[in-house]
Write a structure and sequence with these properties.
Blueprint (H helix, E strand, L loop, with lengths): L10 H4 L22 H19 L2 E13 L5 E13 L3 E8 L4 E6 L3 E6 L4 E6 L4 H10 L15 H8 L2 E9 L4 E8 L3 E8 L6 E8 L7 E10 L18 E3 L2 H18 L2
Parallel strand pairs: 6-12
Antiparallel strand pairs: 1-2, 1-11, 2-3, 3-4, 4-5, 5-6, 7-8, 8-9, 9-10, 10-11
């Protein structure tokens, strides 16, 4: 039996919400509920994490993730992948991906071009995009409609994104994950309930994330474990450059194919075809 997979486009596009609103007693007006001590502490830890990551110029991290694919009969099937991420701000990004079925792919950004290479199919797509990592990731998700889980963690505007979009957050407990003292936080957005474990101390890095898509059928989850954080990796520009593998075929991103189809249709209308 072939099970249906479920593609997430990541926290970057799914953490969309408005501010907190509440009805004042007896009146239909907006009012912010009082913030408890644990809620204030949780938000402070979350923002410290955001500031620390976004100000780190270079880093390397491995992410083991899994997501639920809700089948037609309601059963949830788990699929996973491993991602090795390298960031060199402001304009270098490399993500090596290996899915649970063994398929491998590569996402590269060299400051000029975004490249996606599927090693299993020996094909690649490439498009020009300048402006740095933030602009490239935004374009990758919103315009190319590509899959990049937890993309918000890679942009320098992480703090602003979380500050504006996290609806509520609270402190759950002090714990260890895995063997590292950490803070367990739980928060909500308009579309996602999330949990994040942040390392305690002077390196407030995310160690684990769980997202629950509460508005989706079956409320599927996305789970990610972070390991091997390296905040001073030795890297060269060569690892961000792409050389097509022997025999590989260049293809177009889906949106590029759609644009071609629209242009051909308009040309046919003008010519009377």
């Amino acid at each position: 039996m072939k099970y249906k997979t479920f593609g997430f486009i990541g926290l970057f596009t799914l953490l969309c919400l408005s501010g907190l609103t509440a009805l004042a007693e007896g009146e239909a007006q907006s009012a912010e509920p009082p913030v408890s001590e644990s809620q204030a502490e949780a938000r402070e830890i979350l923002m410290e994490m955001a500031g620390f990551i976004s100000k780190t110029r270079r880093f390397r991290v491995t992410i083991h993730s899994a997501h639920d694919a809700v089948q037609g009969d309601g059963q949830k099937i788990e699929f996973g992948e491993i991602r090795n991420v390298i960031i060199d701000r402001p304009d270098r990004l490399r993500i090596e991906i290996e899915r649970s079925d063994g398929n491998r792919s590569l996402v590269l950004y060299d400051g000029r071009n975004i490249t996606v290479n599927s090693l299993a199919q020996n094909v690649y797509a490439q498009t020009e995009k300048t402006g740095g990592i933030d602009a490239a990731i935004t374009y990758f998700i919103r315009e190319l409609h590509m899959y990049l889980p937890l993309a918000v963690l890679l942009v320098s505007s992480l703090g602003t994104e979380l500050e504006n979009r996290v609806q509520s957050i609270d402190y759950v407990e002090s714990t260890n994950i895995p063997g590292i003292p950490s803070h367990h936080l739980a928060g909500r957005t308009e579309t996602v309930d999330f949990q994040v474990w942040v390392a305690a101390g002077d390196r407030p890095l995310p160690l684990r994330v769980v997202l629950t898509y509460k508005n989706a059928d079956g409320q599927p989850q996305y789970r990610a474990q972070f390991s091997d954080w390296d905040l001073a990796p030795e890297i060269s520009n060569a690892i961000f450059e792409f050389t097509p593998p022997t025999g590989s075929q260049k293809i177009s991103f889906l949106n590029q194919l759609q644009n071609v189809a629209v242009q051909q249709s308009e040309a046919a209308e003008r010519s009377g075809e």
